Amino acid sequence: SYAELSNHGGLSLFYSLYPHDLGKSQKDYTGQWITFEYKDYRNGGGKVLHTLRTIDFIGRLIRHIPSHYFNVIRHFGILASRVKKQYKEITDRVLESPPEVDEAPNWRERQTAFRGKDPLLCGVCGRVMRFVSSRIPIPLWRVKESLQAAFS
């Protein structure tokens, strides 16, 4: 729960956290209610007015304050979101596209190149062998257990 705030306590917290956005986002403040404006990117980026109780507004605001040891990484230079679109065409022209990588040969192709013959061709009939199933040998201790159980 949040501590009881004086009429201007919540607003001063808002001012201290977002001093650069005061004129743009806060539209109306009475001791109990605050009306602010934001861009609604889910619906085309249009501006929306929203009114909340001051204590609820502060609660929503506090959620976005990182904890003490949390490192906030901000992008700068050509990765900054404000200039990324402007520099995208330039960087696309300047930076070369990565070279196309040839597909790696599979096991059969590697073995054919290494041994000089196809490992999947049958030595008797010359047809291509295909995988049917594999057999995992039963461990000796399990065979021993089953024999002891059968003869005891």
UniProtKB/TrEMBL annotation:
TM ranges: none
Domain Transposase IS801/IS1294: from-to ranges: 29-85
GO biological process: DNA transposition
Domain of life, source organism: Bacteria
Molecular-function GO terms, alphabetical: DNA binding; transposase activity
Protein name (Swiss-Prot/TrEMBL): Transposase
Organism: Candidatus Kentrum sp. LFY
